[in-house]
């Protein structure tokens, strides 16, 4: 664990809860749906690869949506989503392992488990195709990346700056997400992705995360080298008034071909 001195209070309390959360029982063994194949299929079909996130609420969201997670995911796939991310963190994001299970049953695309994983036993809570590991919050990243792969997960390692990128690469990550939101003030700056992306080797699959809300943002992240984008709020309609999940998704997956 790196320093916690610069964390927003909400993040500090998320971590405190995450550290205590028990792991699953039996060791999971996943027959994962490949993200890189899904990205290739989207590109071939002329769609921007978007990982759409089922996020009922968050520390920065206005309000909560408690729609059926499987219905939300189906609407996202209908709008052209390449993969679905599901928050499983219960206390601050309104997530659950059960909602991920329902989503993975309902759609054919790869599903990412989004949580604050701190130790190996927490990998066994639920099956998913992809698993988020946040570089800053994991003590032994290399060991957790390996433990995730042994179970069949494709680990997505999240970084926020070049130093964390370095640790992700040293840990053997080949799927890396750059989070545009800082964990100190919870503010979003798309320049974060642009600055970190220049240091990422070509053989890494690179995902731009957070704060992407318009077709223009999509184009900006693609120009900076994003193979895919992770989008939650702009699709979930946290406060935007746009409640049509399929339309919200389509607007971004068609950002390079649409007329906006
Ligand atoms: O809602 P946004 O700004 O589109 O962001 C989605 C996603 O990137 C964000 O939810 C996220 C990025 N990293 C995380 C780690 C844990 C929980 C959530 C996140």
Q: Segments where pLDDT lies below 50 for 5+ residues?
A: none
What's the alpha carbon Rg, rounded to whole Å? 17 Å
Mean pLDDT, to the nearest integer, reads 93
User: Any idea what the shape is?
Assistant: globular
Largest sheet entry = 8 strands, parallel, barrel
> Biggest sheet: strands side by side, in what order?
1-2-3-4-5-6-7-8
Which fold name fills CATH's third level, the topology? TIM Barrel
Compressed to H and E, one letter per element, the order equals HHEHEHHEEHEHEHEHEHH
Count of helices? 11
The CATH superfamily appears as Aldolase class I
Number of strands: 8
Oligomer: single chain
Coarse structural class: alpha/beta
User: Architecture in CATH?
Assistant: Alpha-Beta Barrel
Share in helix? 25-40%
State the end-to-end CA separation.
Answer: 43 Å
EC number: 4.1.1.48
GO molecular function: indole-3-glycerol-phosphate synthase activity; phosphoribosylanthranilate isomerase activity
Pathway: Amino-acid biosynthesis; L-tryptophan biosynthesis; L-tryptophan from chorismate: step 4/5
Domain Indole-3-glycerol phosphate synthase: 15-239
């Amino acid at each position: 664990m790196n320093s916690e001195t610069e964390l927003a209070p909400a993040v500090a309390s998320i971590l405190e809860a995450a550290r205590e959360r028990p792991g699953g029982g039996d060791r999971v063994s996943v027959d994962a749906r490949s993200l890189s194949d899904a990205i290739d299929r989207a590109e071939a079909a002329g769609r921007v690869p978007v990982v759409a996130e089922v996020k009922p609420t968050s520390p920065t969201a206005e309000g909560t949506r408690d729609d059926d997670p499987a219905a939300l995911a189906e609407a996202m796939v209908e709008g052209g989503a390449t993969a679905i991310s599901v928050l499983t963190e219960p206390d601050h994001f309104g997530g659950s392992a059960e909602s991920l299970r329902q989503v993975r049953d309902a759609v054919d695309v790869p599903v990412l488990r989004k949580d604050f994983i701190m130790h190996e036993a927490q990998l066994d809570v639920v099956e998913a195709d992809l698993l988020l590991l946040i570089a800053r919050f994991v003590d032994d990243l290399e060991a957790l990346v390996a433990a995730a792969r042994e179970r069949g997960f494709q680990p997505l390692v999240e970084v926020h700056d070049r130093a964390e990128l370095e640790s992700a690469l040293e840990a053997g990550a080949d799927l890396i997400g750059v989070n545009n939101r800082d964990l100190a003030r919870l503010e979003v700056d798309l320049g974060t992705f642009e600055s970190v992306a220049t240091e990422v080797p070509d053989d890494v699959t690179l995902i731009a995360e957070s704060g992407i809300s318009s077709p223009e943002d999509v184009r900006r992240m693609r120009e900076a080298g994003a193979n895919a984008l992770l989008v939650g709020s702009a699709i979930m309609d946290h406060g935007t008034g746009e409640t049509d999940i399929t339309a919200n998704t389509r607007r971004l997956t068609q950002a390079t071909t649409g007329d906006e």
